[in-house]
2,5-diketo-D-gluconate reductase B
Amino acid sequence: MNTNTIPAFGLGTFRLKDQVVIDSVKTGLELGYRLVDTAQIYGNEAEVGQAIAESGVPRDDIFITTKIWTANYAEDKLVPSLKDSLQKLRTDHVDLTLIHWPSPNNAVPVAEFMGALMQAKAQGLTRRIGISNFNIALMKEAIEAVGAEHIATNQIELSPFLQNRKVVDFAKSQGIHITSYMTLAYGKALKDPVIEAMASARNATPAQVVLAWAMQLGYAVIPSSTKRENLASNLLAQQLQLSDADMAQIARMDRGERLTSPEGLAPAWD
């Protein structure tokens, strides 16, 4: 068995805070979500941990992802920061730990933080390790540091309008899974007439169409929502099958439209 497998469908918690994130995670778990994605910089790990604890769903049934923030990349900081995250999340391990963004100005070399991630894995603090927002050059460095077989995923912005094919193709060639975030393009994809037409033809929602598209390409998705009906509806994307014609039509929507590229953090995108 490939120990790097990750669920195809999960719940994102970016921008959700306090009671809002507790309610979203508890509702999601109640509806059947089993992957919860958080990060140190989101400032909500403790609330996510509380929601999981109060959900009544056994810890072993839940896949928890967190991401190390740039300030904690140094070899002497990474493992302690992850232990702090585990305390907040009320667990002795997470299922996946990602490097959130490349180290600004390469302040901490890729080999150093990937090595520290491997140490965290060896100590049982995380079952899998991976990267986020890495371009091809950085992926090559990460592979050189720890081997592609140890990199479970590269989590990148990916939507019908930003299909990131160069990064995707390189990751696939190395056996590295892609996790798509902002798959719905902050809701912009839901208003696209082509996607709206596909949705109405299938008696589905535009969100279901976009999420099904990404999963059919083999990507994992982590949409977030605070509304119970949207959380429930998004889950149904897993049952939706798009035709080859639909997939080809969405493939043509790529326009390289990137919605997140923080200055000082983002690499030179491929």
In short: Strands lie at 11-12, 35-37, 63-68, 96-99, 129-132, 151-157, 177-181, 220-221. The chain has one domain: 11-251. The first helix runs from residue 18 to 31. The chain has ten helices and eight strands.
